[in-house]
Specification:
The protein has 304 residues and is α+β, with helices and mostly antiparallel strands. Helix content is 49%, strand content 16%. It folds into 2 domains: 6-74, Winged helix-like DNA-binding domain superfamily/Winged helix DNA-binding domain (Arc Repressor Mutant, subunit A, Orthogonal Bundle); 80-298, 2-Layer Sandwich (Beta-Lactamase), CATH 3.30.450. The strands form 3 sheets. It has a 6-stranded antiparallel β-sheet. Strand 3 and strand 4 form a beta hairpin. The N and C termini lie far apart (42 Å).
């Protein structure tokens, strides 16, 4: 197992809480309650972070919010996803045209991270809105994998096997490979509503009111496990059939012709016909291509 530093995790949990709620400020008591930290330990971390400018403390309320030093860190991180600047206006228009929640997610190590979100969302998933992290492990993240080198596909499939053990048989391996092939062939991914969403919701209800990153990690891993056991990907689409769609996702290509981001719809509250799925997917693909072209022109990248 990789080395794990609890003091570092505590500091990161504080930053994570404030980053996910940028309009809010939190006092010592509220931070300790949400994160389940010892009050003295939490106070020491908050004081140190404020001293170095990563947090600011209101002199009257004593509540903490993000500080100016985070701006530099944020700008540096933002530079890793240059296309995001051009994705935002496209997502805003899409959310209005479709009447759905739409977002952009990127890859960060072993996680998928929600970088932008517009439109409707599920209030229960509030800890998983902006900055949301889900494991970048099979079957999640297939829109990235479909255009990635074969070695990454094998690594991704191995994460499913590691999670399920002997339950990950040849049939499931083949099923996931077929889904990835279908996604690449048609240019978009469609996932279906499953009992896994109920698993996720129950897990979130169990930790509601807190911001325990370890607990959140456990909940999302259980979500991944449940998805592996479900009929998650829609591989064949009949225009005349209706489907309980969870998400429709398209890649947003970067300079190296690999997905830099993904655009995805969510908060779909009724079954969609195959024809509607195809129409929404085309709108998503067009928006992704416009964002790519805008970024290419701005950064003098070759147009492909």
């Amino acid at each position: 197992m990789a080395l794990f530093s609890k003091p570092t995790a505590r500091a990161l949990a504080i930053l994570d809480l404030l980053t996910a709620n940028p309009q809010e400020s939190y006092g010592l008591t509220e931070v300790t309650r949400k994160l389940g930290l010892n009050k003295a330990t939490c106070h020491a971390i908050l004081t140190t972070m404020a001293h170095y400018g990563f947090l600011v403390q209101d002199p009257r309320s004593k509540a903490y919010r993000l500080g100016p030093n985070i701006v530099a860190a944020g700008n540096a991180a933002f530079a890793q996803f240059p296309i995001l600047e051009y994705a935002r206006p496209e997502l805003e228009v899409l959310s209005q045209e479709l009447g759905l929640g739409v977002g952009a997610a990127g890859r960060s190590g072993s996680h998928l991270v929600l970088l932008a979100h517009y439109g409707h969302s599920n209030p229960m998933l509030s800890p998983f809105q902006l900055g949301m992290r889900l494991p970048f492990m099979a079957p999640l993240g297939a829109s990235f994998i479909a255009w990635s080198p074969a070695k990454q596909l094998e690594t991704w499939l191995a994460t499913g096997e590691q999670r399920l053990g002997e339950e990950f048989d040849d049939k499931l391996d083949q099923k996931l490979r077929i889904s990835v092939i279908a996604i690449r062939a048609r240019g978009f991914e469609v996932t279906l509503k499953t009992e896994a969403e109920e698993t996720l919701q129950r897990g979130l209800e169990g930790i509601e009111g807190t911001w325990n990153l370890e607990a959140l990690e456990h909940v999302t891993r259980e979500y991944q496990t449940s998805l592996l056991k479900s009929h998650y990907h829609l591989d064949r689409i009949d225009p005349g059939t209706r489907y309980p769609v969870c998400n429709i996702t398209v890649p947003v290509f970067g300079y190296d012709q690999l997905p830099e981001l993904i655009f995805s719809t969510g908060s779909i509250h009724r079954d969609l016909s195959g024809a509607e799925i195809l129409e929404i997917a085309e709108q998503l693909k067009a928006a992704a291509e416009r964002a790519r072209q805008s970024a290419s022109r701005a950064y003098n990248r070759p147009q492909h």
